[in-house]
Fold:
Amino acid sequence: MSSSLGDRAVTLLVRHDHTVTVACADTSELLDAVECKTGVPRWATWLCFAGKKLEAGMPLSHYGLCDGSTVHVATRGFGGGCGNSKGSVQPGGPSTSGGLGTPQGKQAQTTRSEDAGDMLKYTGLSSLRAFLGGGDVAFIRASHLLSLASTEGAFFRRQDLPEGAIVDSAMLERSFAELDAWDAYLSNGSTPAHHSQFMRFPPFVIISYAWSAREHPDAAGRQLREVIAPAIEWYMAERLKLIKEGGFQGTPRIDNAFDADGCDFCVFLDYSSLYQHSADAHSCDECARLVESNAGPCERHRRTPDQDASFKRALDSMELLYAHSRTCVWRLTRLLDGLTCAPYDDRGWPFFETTVSWLIKLAPNCLDLGTEAARRALAQFEGRMRPVEELVAKASYTHFKEEGVHGELKDARSPPVLPDDFAVEMRKKKLTNNKDSGVVTDLQRKVTEIVLNGVDKLDFSSLGWDGRAGQQLAKVLPWCSRLCTLNVSSNKFGVEGAKAIGEALKLNTTITSLKCAAARAIPHCQ
Structure:
């Protein structure tokens, strides 16, 4: 495909054996021309030159295009990019694909099988084991947080945690054994497919919340006492039920002791799980002077060099905990009465944590503790440890049609947010440390591109999505170059949403199973 721009002629390689000629002045016109000539929607098209994606609305000279330059045209997720059905780049031009995880695959020579390997980071347990084994993140015992709430305490920094608060290696191994046992059950050929939808109250809970102040995220302990502790008590009750009785339709018990230790679980809470600077840094004149020059707190109040290196390593992989398919994310979205900090929805890190947790996690593992329905449901829990027989009696979950308290806490999640859309929204968000903006945006792009390029199964059933959500999902589907199974049953897309999804699926060559039933029933459930 050649475009005559005055004395310039730019060749566009649609396939290694196909070119057409168009006339245009900038990348927007070029994308329109590609859509006209090939029938591929412009939102499903990437133009690649010199290892960079060409953004719409830019003059071609912005990218240094000149006579004889070759730009590759890549379509997202329809059998690979730049004319190669395996997602790698055919020779024949001076530049090829975009960076890691772009819809046409990774840098030249990356195959779809390698994308699948990257995807295992967010689905396999080995990545979690390795991350936690490194020691840069400390999970906190839920029982410690209950005890702290009962004494009207506040979160400790990781450096100040009392003995026994951090999950030890024995508890970690027990937690992984629990997940391994469930995987073994699901992989049994006789296990009904719908059992994968049952909530198992997994032992790894990741908390997403808004800090109330730079000095301390919850100095008065209100988020701990009013939201987190009641939720912990409820979650322990449900885990005790699975320990004592097993689940619906003969699903196996959790093989732990029926006691307070057996129902305990691992919690990630950033202030307590990562090394922090001293809270006194915010009242130190020298720290204030250094912060203004981007030098950070003074030597007396900052993390030690080893702690700082640990913090940075953890931050570089922070998306793993929220995006991983086997963790349960609790979002604390309600601004408690009397607090004057920026609300959850206006904050940068919570926005990141929300979007990555919504990528591939099953709906039962996405919880919003901030809704009015959640507040009412958790009101029956005082946020303290009870005798196990008393506690197990408060469990209410049976299955995904009789969810009890769990049903009141399930998140009203949306379709995945694409990186460019995320970057636009991030400009409106507030960050405690403005230097984090680039870190957050880059992390979201990294995980989103890897996950969408690598995922082979997506289950977005029974989420109540409307036509607008259907149109957003249609934008996402072209990124999913390995997607084989898509379940969008029991949503309310309407004509426009369904039409948009249908148009996206016309161009897909990988999906072999599409489920879009109007309702879902549990076999043999009365």
